[in-house]
Amino acid sequence: MHKVRTLLFTVIIAGALSACKVIYFYTPDKPWYFASYSDPYCISYFEVSLKDWIMYMAYSLSPAPEDEIFLGDHKEEIKPLLPEHGTNKWVDYVMDALQRQSERYHAEAMYLQCGDKYSLISIPASAWDTIRSLRLIDLPVTGISYEQAMGFLKYRERVMNDCKKLTSSGGRKVSYECFLPTPEQMDSLQFYKDSLNAMRCEILNYKHELCVDCPMGQKIKDHPVLKDLGKHPVYVDGFFPDYMGLYNIRGNVAEMTSVKGIAKGGSCNHYASETMPGRVQYYTKPESWLGFRVWYRLHYN
């Protein structure tokens, strides 16, 4: 497990609550990590994940819930936030599970900010076993519209600015503005020209056939999620990060820009050449290959 991932998602199994195990996805220092782009801009290391999106839905119901939330009790309220059904089988599985009635539940605690506020979400135990073992909430959220992404940015901005640990830097006050990058900003990040390493194995998730002769190839081809490399998105921490620490800045999911209808970076449904600077992925609706990443502008007071 990569060091960054260990820092971000340390899993602690704690006690029992209402006959349910509580799974804490705990962030020791900061709820989000990002890389410096050029002062005063920063970029999230990861694409927005299903875990991020679930936290967003829970927060929309109650910013600081005291009781367990079962999203199935709030179908009308969360309906505008749900990814479009039918665009990605794993996204559908998770979202359907969160709303499904069951005789036995797990309570999943997700920290929203500063390590001291969280949403406690009830999820059917049988579904949670699959979600946990396959790490499905670490997949990028897809099947969402430009408008839904903009709503998420407002939520993330509010949560960041409500967190005292994140609004103080070197004795100065700092506030965060969350936004989507311009196409030109995205192009400036995409400078690796090759899609293969020295062993002729893929180093990003673009449209291709799985290389079973590559290291781990035989193991990957039998994995329920990873076997879809080159066809569907995989984990937000998939492959190695670039020199800035950014994961999947090319490939996996094409990332929305500030210009509605224009995405950059290519995806698992695009050839390697389409992930290069200057190339554009156009969209008119939610897609299985389309996601986004949060960019930040820091304002110092």
Protein described:
Helix content is 23%, strand content 22%. The chain has 301 residues and is an alpha+beta fold. It has a domain at 3-142. The strands form three sheets. The protein has a five-stranded antiparallel β-sheet with strand order 3-4-13-8-7. It starts with a helix and ends with a strand. The relative contact order is 0.17. Residues 1-31 have low confidence and may be disordered.
Q: Which overall shape is indicated by the principal axes computed on the Cα atoms?
A: globular
Largest sheet: 5 strands, antiparallel
Structural category is alpha+beta
Instruction: Identify low-pLDDT runs.
Output: 1-31
Per DSSP, the total helix count is: 8
Oligomer: single chain
- In which range does the helix fraction lie? 10-25%
Strand content: 15-25%
- Kindly report how far apart the N and C termini lie: 38 Å
Radius of gyration equals: 19 Å
Please trace the helix and strand order, writing H or E for each element. HEEEEHHHEEHHEEHHEEEEE
Mean pLDDT: 80
Q: How many distinct beta strands?
A: 13
Strand order in the largest sheet: 3-4-13-8-7
Q: TL;DR?
A:
The protein is α+β, with helices and mostly antiparallel strands. 23% of the residues lie in helices and 22% in strands. The protein has eight helices and 13 strands.
